[in-house]
Amino acid sequence: MKKVILITGASRGIGAEAALLASRKGYHVCLNYCSNKEAADSVIKTIEDEGGSGIAIQADISKEDEVDLLFSTMDRKFGRLDALVNNAGILESQMELTEMSAARIKKIFETNVFGSFYCTQRAITRMALKHGGTGGSIVNVSSVASRTGSPFEYIDYASSKGAIDTFTIGLSKEIASQGIRVNAVRPGFIYTDIHACGGDADRVDKLRDHIPMKRGGYPEEVAAAILWLLSEEASYVSGSFIEIAGGR
Ligand code: NAD
After folding, report:
1. Rounded Cα–Cα distance for residues 30 and 55 (Å)
2. Hey, how many other C-beta atoms are within 10 angstroms of the C-beta on 5?
3. Which of 18, 82, 204, 210 could serve as a FRET partner for 125 with CA atoms 20 to 30 Å apart?
4. Is the pTM of this model over 0.95?
5. Is the distance from CB of 148 to CB of 203 less than 8 angstroms?
6. 107 C-alpha to ligand 1 centroid (Å)
7. Per-residue pLDDT tens for 216-244?
8. Domains in the chain, start-ordered, CATH in brackets?
9. Which of the residues 27, 157, 191, 218 is marked catalytic?
10. Residue of 6, 31, 35, 192 best suited for mutating to test ligand 1, as the one with most atoms within 8 Å of CB
11. For residues 77 and 69, is the Cβ–Cβ distance under 8 A?
């Protein structure tokens, strides 16, 4: 039976590349997007043109009721779930902590942390052996910022990714007996539009000298690690992290 994967925030960037690669590896793809239907439909069209199958489902993952709708739509379409990639995330512009508004900090955590919690809760009730599932695999998209802390820049974002790291470690232990593996990737500077959201679209190129390999990474390089962690080749890997950061 063909496996089903749900990838959040997958209309562009790392999520879109993970969706394309997942389809090439034989998954039915449930592609979540927040607002850009056109971009999401275009990823699904590429999947279908290549002979795969997928569905794009709108939901703001920071809102619990929308996450419920996302999962019920997925249930109606595919009736099962084997893999979840908690990819959706936001970054805001560069700023010191004392300048950050409460609204900004709240939004970062609601999207990057709460959204992953909401999706994962619902994924577990579909995958866990004790809930009648057949097991599965979860990959969280963290960041090298969880370890560097991004001081004087994006400390809210870095802290939210630190929470994702702890979530990954704790959850991998909590649900190991349920046939579910939980891992994370920590990308470094990857060429995607997230840096424009952070107010500095050229950030990756500006920081090239701080990267041992002297180049930014590509979404495809992160997608490859995500799909490996999800695969049977990683069957004894859980609670682990892969840095995709050019040696950083
Ligand atoms: P991106 O901005 O292209 O993609 C992020 C996606 O998340 C977008 O499609 C966006 O619409 C979606 N999203 C945001 N809020 C959402 C919400 N509330 N509900 C649903 N979807 C939502 O950037 P990306 O680089 O592809 O980011 C993917 C992940 O990789 C993020 O978690 C990001 O923090 C992480 N990451 C990226 C880098 C990098 O350098 N690009 C580095 C480390 C970690």
Report:
1. 5
2. 29
3. 18
4. yes
5. no
6. 14
7. 999 999 999 999 999 999 999 999 999 99
8. 4-244 (3.40.50.720)
9. 157
10. 192
11. no
- Whether 157 is catalytic: yes
- Which tokens is 82 given? 């084997």
The pick from 194, 205, 210, 218 for probing ligand 1's pocket by mutation, whose C-beta has the most ligand atoms within 8 angstroms, reads: 194
Q: Is the pLDDT of residue 152 over 80?
A: no
Rounded to 10°, the helix 64-78/115-127 angle is 30
Residue with tokens 């590896």: 25
Ligand 1 atom closest to Cα of residue 194: 2
Instruction: Please give the angle made by the CA atoms of 52, 54 and 60, to the nearest 5 degrees.
Output: 155
Q: Specify whether the CB–CB gap between 172 and 217 falls below 8 A.
A: no
Question: Ligand 1 center to residue 8 CA distance, Å?
Answer: 9
Q: How far does the centroid of ligand 1 lie from the alpha carbon of residue 15, in Å?
A: 7
In percent, the amount of the chain with pLDDT more than 70 equals 100
Q: Which amino acid appears at position 53 of this protein?
A: S
